[in-house]
Specification:
Blueprint (H helix, E strand, L loop, with lengths): L7 E6 L6 H15 L4 E7 L5 E2 L3 E3 L2 E3 L13 E2 L3 E2 L8 E4 L8 H14 L10 E4 L3 H8 L6 E2 L6 H6 L7 E2 L5 E4 L2 E4 L4 H14 L1 H11 L10 H5 L13
Parallel strand pairs: 1-2, 1-8, 2-7, 8-9, 9-13, 10-11
Antiparallel strand pairs: 3-6, 4-5, 12-13
Helix pairs in contact: 1-5, 1-6, 2-3, 5-6
């Protein structure tokens, strides 16, 4: 995708019941970065309605698996800037996770759109594809990531590996985040911010990433720092998680 502006263009994909920290942790780092470097962001959904966090609330009604929880309406909303039909061009595709990734019907518009824009090969992808947590399941469903190394939320690791298209991906169990070419994927929730800070280091060097980290008062974890793989009893024999 040709970028005539010089600004790094981010496209964030949202869907009902995404996890807030999956998005707001990485975007907090990106917002700080944008004060120093030219960047733009588009927030995409299937329509322009507010997107609910951790719950699926449609026309004021809580539906789905969390409708009968203690607080079915305790939620935040995010306003999209564009729909999938009128999304502007972008250099970075950002895909969060959350319990909503298990709803194939609600997430199918996002999967269909990503399938179209990712083209036929990695050469057709944007400069970077970033996934957080179970957002990797949506990428897997596009069928575009066969042969790639990736990771995901360790509590949902086996479920993500079971979705359509996931069988062709090399899933790394023990990794805070994994880099394979243009694809950057992280473990669960807070790991997305560690990955984003690593990505910032890749783009602009350690001094810039450390500046962002200190501004955020974020305790640093490296790619190999993954206590949750042990917590959930996950093992693999692969020696590398694609170190940057």
């Amino acid at each position: 995708m040709v970028n005539p502006t010089g600004a790094l263009r981010i496209a964030a994909v949202l869907f009902p019941q995404f996890t807030s920290l999956d998005v707001f942790g990485p975007l907090g780092a990106m917002n700080s970065l944008s004060l120093r470097f030219p960047m733009s962001i588009s927030v995409l959904s299937h329509n322009m309605d507010p997107v609910s966090i951790d719950r699926n609330i449609i026309n004021g009604v809580s539906v789905g698996d969390r409708a009968n929880t203690a607080s079915p309406y305790f939620t935040e909303y995010v306003l999209p800037t564009h729909t999938f039909d009128n999304a502007p061009e972008f250099d970075v595709l950002f895909v969060p996770g959350g319990s909503g990734t298990r709803n194939n019907t609600a997430t199918q518009p996002a999967v269909d759109w990503m399938t179209r824009v990712l083209g036929d090969s990695e050469e057709d992808w944007p400069q970077y594809v970033l996934s957080v947590c179970t957002g990797a399941a949506l990428l897997a469903r596009t069928g575009k990531f066969g042969g790639k190394n990736a990771t995901t939320n360790k509590a949902a690791f086996n479920w993500v590996r079971s979705v359509q298209g996931a069988e062709d991906i090399n899933w790394i169990a023990r990794a805070r985040w994994v880099v394979d070419g243009k694809l950057w994927s992280s473990s669960g929730v807070s790991a997305g911010t560690d990955m984003t800070l690593g990505w910032i280091e890749h783009l602009h060097g350690r001094n810039q990433s450390e500046t962002m980290r200190v501004m955020m008062e974020w305790n640093k974890l490296e790619q190999e720092d993954d206590p949750f793989a042990d917590y959930y009893g996950l093992r693999d024999d692969r020696p590398s998680c694609g170190k940057i």
